[in-house]
Amino acid sequence: xxxxxxxxxxxxAISMLVPGASSGATQSPGPTSDARLIVDxxxxxxxxxxxxxxxxxxxxxxxxxxxxxxxxxxxxPNVRGIRSDVVAxxxxxHIPVIRWPGGCFADGYHWADGIGPANQRPQGINxxxxxxxxxxxxxxxxxxxxLDQIGAxxxxxxxxxxxxxxxxxxxxxxxxxxxxxxxxxxRTANGHAEPWAVPxxxxxxxxxxxxxxxxxxxxxxxxxxxxxxxRSYSGERAKLIAVGADTDDYxxxxxxxxxxxxxxxxxxxxxxxxxxxxxxxxxLHFYTFAGNDWRNKGxxxxxxxxxxxxxxxxxxxxxxxxxxxxxxxDKYDPDKRVALxxxxxxxxxxxxxxxxxxxxxxxxxxxxxxxxxxxxxxxxHADRVRMANLAQMVNVIQSLILTDGAKMxxxxxxxxxxxxxxxxGAALVPTEVQAHAYVEGDTRLPGLSVSASKxxxxxxxxxxxxxxxxxxxxxxITLRGGRWRTATAQTLTADRIDTRISFDAPDPFIPKPLPxxxxxxxxxxxxASKSVTLLEISQ
Length: 539
Description:
The protein has ten helices and 27 strands. The chain has 539 residues and is an alpha/beta fold.
């Protein structure tokens, strides 16, 4: 993660659609409006990859130290130094994959500093961020232990910016080589005999910026070089994720896909020259703030309806970015073998002056609505988007969890991930939406964002986000295909648009039951303004 250039698609008036929204919507007077949905339950689409609900952890602020790692001698309950309350909360929402160690930190991280006895590890400097001390207490073994405790898979970003192919290959040998090998014996001496599975490898981070200031052409060549030597030494070959574009840099996507997607032809049948793409995925980074100016991201508390609308308008642009990058990828990969991995996304507002650590944000209802809107968009692009990683999981910008010493709270974004976990591994279901527009000044947005999926047990789940901060919506849902008998719902909202979580007060964001009735294959429910709702329908 790094602070990047101004988003070039900024516009004073934004009239964008999220998937499943109607372009002909008009705003009607009054506090409540009607919305009509048609769901083709017998026409399942692509599978929603569970990895869309992935997370991102970087050595930044208190994201790792205190947020995850407290040390085995801490008075905070922990297992081998990893705090138990955080583990329990993350297990509940079924985190599938965690990207680590960065971010900009990754391109200055040397993995060998983070292994061996803790008291013998070198004390470093976090040059990527605030030049604070880096103890290296949380390294490869601790990361893998953390993953094991919460049941997630590894997504390791190797150091391309200041590292080397050899260093990256040595790290893969250390993590994945058989126990009897020399790297395996070293790993065993440090407490873990069996090789780890490393399903995903990020080949650098933001190589157009903090990861090396490369051009697309130079990165494509660098990626090809690393890809030739990065492999798993036991188990399945790691899936390589290439550095993709900064926001709307479509030329980067075009050049990297053209030059680095496939192996080059070779006159001899080498084992690694196949007709499979060289990369499993291409990344995309995009952050939400109140407007389109990195230098004026807006406050995360004490904001008004104009800032609410501006932030949602930018979050809504995620759909355009995915569509346009995907169209470029389609030129080189019409079968969609290469995933688009949105491995950094989330709300990034200006930290308050009294923030306890770098890039720490208090968490509000607006974050929940941004999360619900963004996840609906990712679901709708499940044919191409097969991974996304919220930035960042604990104590940094749009977090799932906040800590204050021994205290821990879950955020409204956490509750959204808890509601949406039903989509993981389910089949996307086509949905048509007719709903009012949400208009605030020059900003015009669909009032309702929806995604629907059908799981392996045959249950239908719909997630509905009401973007309008003032108007509730009565929703009528027509179900096509099958006989549906029961409907239940739960919803997340709050009194004010900037309602925030507190360490010293009850959680105001715990989802509450919402009445829903089904009559002759039509569901009716009333969703509150500024809300995120999960509807479950059974046969």
